[in-house]
Structures are given as C-alpha cells and as structure tokens.
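A protein record in our archive is deliberately plain, so that people and models can read it alike. The tokens are whole numbers drawn from a learned vocabulary of local backbone shapes. For reference, a complete record is included directly beneath this paragraph.
>
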Amino acid sequence: MRGQSVFGGVAVAVLLAVGCSDDVGITVTERFTATLNGTNEKPNAVTTTATGTAEFTYVADIPALFYRIDVAGIDSATVAHIHGPADINNPAGVIVNLFLGPTKPIGFTGALAEGVVGQLGAPVGMTMDSLLVLLRTGNAYVNVHTRVNLGGEIRGQVSRQ
C-alpha cells in the first residue's frame, strides 16, 4: 500500500509539472531602435565621426518605456531628446528629454543615458500613448546635441523591431 502511495504522489507531481507554465514575470511588449550618425541630421548633415544607438523597450504590464543611448567618439555631449512628429527628412520639436548633462568629455564612448521615459519630465504636448504611436509609425527621432553642434550632432529615426 505504501508503494502505491509513493507512486501516486510522483504521478501527481509529474502531472503538475507538465501542466505548469513559466509565464512568470513581465513580458516585453515592444522594442524600438535608432541608429545615430551625423548624416541623419536635418536640415543639414553634420560631419562627425561620432555614432550611436538608442534602444527603447515598452513593457505594457507596468506600463513603462525604458531606454538606453550608447555613443562612440562624441565630443562634449550636452543633451539628448526624442523629437517629433517628424519623418526622416524633417526636424521637429523636443518631445522627451533623455539626457540633460552633465556634459560628457571629448571623445566619450559608452552609455550616454538610460532610464525610464518620463523621469526627466513628461512628454511635451502629448500622452505616453501618443508618443508610442509616433515610435510605432517611425515619426520620431533621437537627437544627441553637443557644445559644437547645438542643433544636434547625431540623429536617428526610431523604428519598431
């Protein structure tokens, strides 16, 4: 009788394990990226060796939009923003601050900024849902400004991954 009890317990444990799912935790809803360089600057391209990437991860469960901007070889970065609404050929106003200094040193390479969109101020003139629509449709861009190029040194249009 005792052998049957142990076997029955093992069978129940196996059935429970098979029926379990690993849907524990937060699920990433959407990802967006931008490749930053001087030739993307509008209305006039900027000659620079600086480059960068911006990555955004939207998690609807929270809801929150996380970001990270990495740059390489940029001189005296002062601020970085999401701008829009704008297509790839046009400039637009600032929607969200992503980096507000302190100014990075000449030739800086590394993570310029990371955090949650909105921690440096809410989106200007729109809701988070409206900002997400701009990101989803490719009508927003990231711009990193420097002391030499106050209007922006490297820019990249945000696209959905």
